[in-house]
Amino acid sequence: MRIAVPREVKADEYRVALLPAGAAALVRSGHSVAVESQAGAGSGISDDQYAAAGASIRHSPDELWPQADLIIKVKEPQATEFQYFRPGLRVMTYFHFAAEKPLAQACLQSKITAIAYETIRDARGSLPCLTPMSEIAGKMSIQEGAKYLERPMLGRGILLGGVTGVLPAHVVILGAGVVGHNAARVAAGLGAQVTLMDINLDRLRYLADVMPANVTTLFNDQETLRRSLATADLVVGAVLIPGARAPHLVERAGLKWMQPGSVIVDVAIDQGGCFETSRPTTHQAPVYVVDDVVHYCVTNMPGAVGRTSTFALCNATIQFIQLVADADSAAPDSAYALLQNPHIASGVNMVDGRITHAAVAAAIA
Fold first, then answer.
1. What's the fold here for domain 2-127+305-363?
2. 242-268: string of b/e by CB count within 10 Å (b at 16+)?
3. Radius of gyration of the chain from its Cα atoms, rounded to whole angstroms
4. How far apart, in whole angstroms, are the C-alpha atoms of residue 176 and residue 153?
5. Which residue in 61, 163, 217, 239 has its CB near the most CB atoms, within 10 A?
6. Catalytic residue selected from 96, 170, 248, 357
7. Nearest-angstrom CA–CA distance, 164 and 307
8. For 134-304, which CATH superfamily applies?
9. pLDDT tens digits, one per residue of 125-178
10. CB proximity list for 43: less than 8 A, separation 6 or greater
11. Residue 172 in contact with residue 197, Cβ under 8 Å?
12. What does pTM read for this prediction?
């Protein structure tokens, strides 16, 4: 199979979809690998390292995309890349179709096979390709939130951990999954008072046992949420429904419950965001203010720590890339052969102009 790795073109995206070690493994399996020049530069990986692993180097997208059977990316294809779509092309990346309807339409119309990292499930039913990025985004949410709580950044002027004789910040985290767990650990470690909210009581019981004393777990109902937001300095949106649009847990009217200068970090923005007032931002212009509340809604948070993110991502994805490449080579004329493997099938969102994932279909209907 001819596998190609483009250089990411999304603003401030420094990750790359394949490590040289992964390229070498694919080549050993009989596949060819082409990498666009400078694709790994943002992660500190040179073209020479890819060449030494057996990959060929291409110097433009025009040289790369048309010759590939399988494109491996990190972020969703951008509008400038739609021109390279063609029937039968396999594209494997984070798509987040629920928040990207123009992308969904472009994929359907071009009849590519879209394999989304964010919906791939392993034998335990977990999301192995999404988990490492969720870990990073959860940790970064506190790092970024602490920065924007500073007064020059339009925040309340609150030090997250406080000091002797002064209360620490109150951090409210909506969602106790991977993002929420990691956010709570970092916030607690910095000395903040943390409220971790969810509707899954079993998950809350588990986290109540393993979290430090400055983390309180609460069932998320509307009245409890209102009281928590009223005293929050930093609120992290960490809700995920795989493949589906994130629910709006806080409508615009809810911002009036919050203190002026408090900060929202909406990690769910890739799936549409869990605050009604959330809209996508970039690392170059990461925040905006609505009703005196600072909103941080960067859609590719882990891209800022490209080297860490690349290694974490590729460690998780290489086994599934190998599965796709091997399955496709066994039946190159049928994209539907990918659906025979349950792990690959869970990641296949579109085939031949048809949506094959129920949550995605509902989200973009």
1. Rossmann fold (3.40.50)
2. bbbbbebbbeeebbebbeebbbbbbbb
3. 21
4. 28
5. 239
6. 96
7. 37
8. NAD(P)-binding Rossmann-like Domain (3.40.50.720)
9. 899 999 999 999 999 999 999 999 999 999 999 999 999 999 999 999 999 999
10. 14, 15, 16, 306, 307, 309, 310, 311
11. yes
12. 0.92
Query: With pLDDT > 90 as the criterion, what percentage of the chain qualifies?
Result: 88
Token pair belonging to 5: 């790795």
Looking at residue 282, its amino acid is: T
Q: Give residue limits of the domains in the chain.
A: 2-127+305-363, 134-304
DSSP character string of 100-161: -HHHHHHHHHHTPEEEEGGG---TTS--TTTHHHHHHHHHHHHHHHHHHTSGGGTS----TT
For residue 311, with 0-12 CB atoms within 10 Å meaning exposed, 13-18 middle and 19 or more buried, which class applies?
A: middle
Average pLDDT in the chain: 94
Query: How many other CB atoms are there within 10 angstroms of residue 219's CB atom?
Result: 12
Residue in 233, 266, 270, 328 annotated catalytic: 270
DSSP state of 73: -
62 is catalytic: no
Residue 26: strand, helix, or coil: helix
Question: Quick check: is 170 catalytic?
Answer: no
Phi/psi for 315 (5° steps) reads -60, -35
Digit-coded pLDDT (tens) for 219-255: 999 999 999 999 999 999 999 888 888 999 999 999 9
What tokens does 162 get? Answer: 């406080």
Q: Do domains 2-127+305-363 and 134-304 have the same CATH topology?
A: yes
Note the pLDDT of residue 233.
98
